[in-house]
């Protein structure tokens, strides 16, 4: 057992494992309290057992479906060809990282999980913040539900805020490191080192992995809408990392018992500097309204919260809706409940058009060209692959969504639906008898 | 679409070209075949026309009411009847019969027939649509448009009927033409004259013309073999029709447009296997499981008058419309709310922008202008009757597709007697550099109606080829173009890709015309772009 890695709060409920990783580095995992076995008792390497089914969800964060090609991402493309592709797959509102990862793991809409966006206005604390606390997620996830049924689970999440919200739900958790400044994520080669080390040594039945490079580079790609050179490089590298993982499973002899669900949480859209929407600016001439609204900016979406007197809410929100909707870059404004978002999403959700972005609470707050959260970023890659004989090859027209991951994985493990049922659908047409 | 010029000669009317009932056919009987259409998961629309007495000819307004029985069975021998009933028809609806059979099973082949006074019709074969949301691995449809009786024989329909592998036939309009003999035919030859021998302007005319087309045995064979999903373009009423008139309508001399349009729509409702009835709307949507939806547009009933030419600023006037507001809302809502992967649009006129190349000879410019009813101003869009003449409406569609990242939308188009495979650019100005496309457009050619080689008076695939290359150079999103061939298309839709095959006829004026696969283009799922297969 080791000390907690630096940068994360320690917990007396956690124990730590230090595992050898590629290149002589080490990977530190935390282990759920009560997990059987000590580090010293773990096998040095998995031996191929075969009757189990291992399921790995790989999220290529922010990847657009048209970016997976045999030329640019040959390993991902080969997996897609060999498995069942869902070309009609889409992300769900708000098309951001945290809510869609939560939907993958819960199988329910934000109105039930409490997680509608990356960034929300916390009325209790009177602050705009990320939903990155374990208590923000109010619904059981696959990571803990499978664990409760006797399966072992793992989380290998490259982004600090994802590790934050999923916290200690998995049996084995990698706490992302090293975290890059600004992006708050660990590079994919480190993430993949951790995933491989985890499956190599503790071999969970189910592992949830986020690869953050494609998204992080997409946000900051200064070549924006033209060359996207850095994005292309990231796609090639992430594809190599996925290839490493497949090769490892093959070498370990577990490929034939593995199912891979590969998808993105959202895609990406790029805007030019002049195509910026600032609700702060829109309301600049109406201080009576501006002073009574809080704005949680989510790139392609703004969540607006009425903070004025309750009696003035309806009229105030209606006025704000009209003023914001008149902006040429605004695509639509919805009531959160209509998008199956809960009260955490505020009073209005504004989406931008393709090629635009929100920048709030100030017009200079969001300088990055690559954004998501708006409907233009709904299409995602989503395919089910792997060496397991249960996986079929082909394409399906079914409207796969991020929320379908939990019921699909649950079906593979025979896990009962959570209380109240899933909002998603098990995509069992990817599997044979 | 428009055309210019008229034929100098006609081949002369012959008894054989007249409707069958005029030649003394046995009555009572079913002289115009049987048809089915508008498939739903639990039902199908069945059609026929009964001739109860020798004088009850189409358009006559004569003949007694008559009860017609109908049967739908799971086998061609009618041992397992799934639905049956009886319906009264009469002169008020030109003795046509339309039955909305329901209670059927989804994705199932059925046989149907009609019976009157002990006389049984031919047996038709049809198929219901798969249930909503179900997995469908393949949908195969025939795609046709622009069948001018006077310009040739309907061999395209025969070849489609002979395939035996189609789920549905999509007819994108110009199912029949309004002209009288000598006004529009195969180059200068009337292969077979229209009945009545005048331009159709009255209800009686429209009924007789529909009846004449329904006597064509090749069309009858296709109707009896496969359900149709149809929409009209302009020639079902008059050339370049709009909500208040038509290029080929002279107000007063040919009656009022309102009455002429109403007559054309009534005859269409009576004589076509379509659920539409006057007072309703023709635009409607069908779905085939989770695989595909088909939104059939009506781009004639609600449109503003065509602009005078493409430099007329009216083309971009947001107050002008091609679809009408209600149909536009319905179309866009259908994209956003689609629960199907492929969003197919039965689109009577072309939506991809097309600009006139500046490199053509005066003769070529004249010929293309005649074919397409176009302006001759270089470098500007060429056809004010297409979406190019209603750019505000087109922008609404393209913006909606783009802003909502609608995937797998494919426009299936007729009208212009030529074969095209195009991307629909998100922005034509930036398309050459970024290739950004929001949808694909696949245009089927005419069954018989004249096209470029016919107008140039040249052999097919000779002089037109250079014109096609010039059009593609001036319009980089146009990937495939054949200005000469006549024939039909077959569209195969699967979850992974959609493919259009273009089949060309050896000779539209020959009853024995053969067909040859000429080109094949696909749209891979998620790409919104066409690519060559063959």
TrEMBL record, chain A:
InterPro entries: Alkaline_phosphatase_core_sf, Phosphodiest/P_Trfase, TAT_signal
GO MF annotations, alphabetized: hydrolase activity
Top-rank taxon: Bacteria
Family annotation (Pfam families): Phosphodiest
Name of the molecule in the record: Predicted pyrophosphatase or phosphodiesterase, AlkP superfamily
UniProtKB/TrEMBL annotation, chain B:
InterPro entries assigned to the protein according to its UniProt record, in alphabetical order: Metallo-depent_PP-like, PhoD-like_MPP, PhoD-like_sf, PhoD_N, Phospholipid_Metab_Enz
Record Gene3D superfamilies: PhoD-like phosphatase, Purple acid phosphatase-like, N-terminal
Domain named PhoD-like phosphatase metallophosphatase: residues: 141-502
Signal sequence coordinates: 1-22
Domain Phospholipase D N-terminal: 32-128
Pfam families: PhoD, PhoD_N
Keywords from the UniProt entry: Signal
Regions crossing the membrane: none
PANTHER family: ALKALINE PHOSPHATASE FAMILY PROTEIN (AFU_ORTHOLOGUE AFUA_5G03860), PHOSPHATASE, PUTATIVE (AFU_ORTHOLOGUE AFUA_6G08710)-RELATED
Name of the featured protein: Alkaline phosphatase D
Organism (species): Cryobacterium psychrotolerans
